């Protein structure tokens, strides 16, 4: 009898403890659907601007002087181009590319971002289509992840030894001696555009 009472008392206090915790720590990272949609729209606008500029330049460079020319360009100017274009983004919006297998070490995803990558990879494995994932960092700071998936033409510079263009990769490997961004196949998850949004609306 005594033990029963004790048990009840313990479970009650545990329950109270949990409820108390959930009151003292409000889930301030939850996002309502409307805000989520707004953040996705803002992110998409930024991604279109930067990715569009990168893609256009890549196409022009391949056309002008083939893959080696493009490799030279990407190895020397891709980052500065992204930086230049980023300046044209809306106020409070920043964009970068992050990955778990970086070519440029500055693109390495941190631990928190790798957790989101796992979330994305699981969804992809289950055959789910993922558009974007929105995370709330603080009351007005949001982060939007847009997965980057490999296509056939990326393999010229990111594929396995048979798929890579030897001249282009010769240039790349000199610039990035610790390159981890190879051996990809079409359809593989490559990383994400990460859009930071400070929302003052
Ligand atoms: C002509 C060669 C070339 C082609 C084709 C190419 N890339 Fe790259 N890629 C590079 C180089 C060089 C870098 C490193 C740029 C830098 O220093 O930021 C890079 C970097 C990246 C990054 C940044 C992360 C990291 O590892 O540094 C992503 C993401 C990426 N490429 C995805 C793609 C995708 C997707 C495609 C196909 C649509 C593609 N690349 C096609 C050469 C290429």
Descriptive tags:
5 helices, 4 strands, alpha+beta, four-stranded antiparallel β-sheet, globular
What can you tell me about this protein's structure?
The protein has one domain (30-198). The protein has five helices and four strands. It is globular. A hairpin with a 2-residue loop joins strand 2 (133-138) and strand 3 (141-149). The model is unreliable at 14-26 (pLDDT under 50). With 201 residues, it is of the alpha+beta class. Heme C is lined by residues 67, 70-71, 74-75, 78-79, 97, 99, 102-104, 107, 148, 150-151, 153-154, 156-158, 168, 172, 181, 190-191.
SSE topology:
Layout: H1 2-24, H2 33-86, E1 93-98, H3 111-125, E2 133-138, E3 141-149, H4 155-158, H5 166-175, E4 189-198
Antiparallel strand pairs: 1-4, 2-3, 3-4
Helix pairs in contact: 2-5
């Amino acid at each position: 009898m005594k033990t029963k009472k004790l048990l009840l008392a313990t479970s009650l206090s545990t329950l109270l403890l949990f409820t108390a915790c959930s009151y003292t720590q409000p889930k301030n990272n939850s996002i309502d659907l409307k805000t989520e949609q707004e953040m996705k729209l803002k992110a998409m606008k930024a991604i279109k601007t930067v990715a569009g500029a990168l893609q256009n330049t890549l196409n022009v460079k391949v056309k002008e002087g083939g893959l080696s020319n493009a490799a030279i360009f990407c190895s020397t100017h891709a980052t500065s181009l992204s930086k230049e274009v980023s300046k044209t983004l809306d106020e409070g919006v920043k964009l970068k590319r992050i990955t778990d297998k970086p070519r440029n070490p500055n693109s390495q995803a941190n631990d928190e971002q790798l957790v989101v990558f796992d979330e994305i990879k699981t969804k992809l494995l289950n055959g789910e289509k993922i558009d974007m994932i929105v995370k709330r960092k603080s009351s007005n700071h949001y982060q939007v992840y847009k997965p980057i998936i490999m296509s056939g033409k990326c393999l010229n510079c990111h594929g396995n030894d048979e798929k890579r263009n030897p001249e282009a990769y010769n240039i790349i490997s000199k610039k990035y001696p610790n390159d981890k961004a190879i051996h990809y196949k079409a359809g593989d998850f490559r990383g994400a555009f990460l859009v930071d949004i400070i929302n003052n609306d």
